[in-house]
Amino acid sequence: MENRFKLKVEDVLNKQFNIDFKGYSSMEVDEFLDLVINDYQEYDAMIKQLGDHLQEYERQIASLKARVVELEGKQEVNDTASSLPNNVDILKRLTRLENAVFGKIEE
Length: 107
Hints:
There is one protein chain. The protein is mostly helical. Helix content is 76%, strand content 4%. The chain contains two helices and two strands; from the N terminus they run αββα. It has a two-stranded antiparallel sheet with strand order 1-2. The termini are far apart. The mean pLDDT is 80.
């Protein structure tokens, strides 16, 4: 994944603020917190985007599964239909064989 974040966990844990006359430098703390906020906003946006992609992929998978089931059903119908002429052919052959055995002449 691309490196969009400016901060790493170590950066947050190891951050040292310079002590000003009245305490920490408020500008330095504000700048650092702005970085943290920006990273969290970027993180939230990325999570939302990935969630949207996941939902779209799940919809595509469901659609493709339905298509597979539909095609498998058509294949079964085709298999059944293709076996029917074979049965008819067998019946025709049996009829000819019976006619030949019993002496009837086929027209």
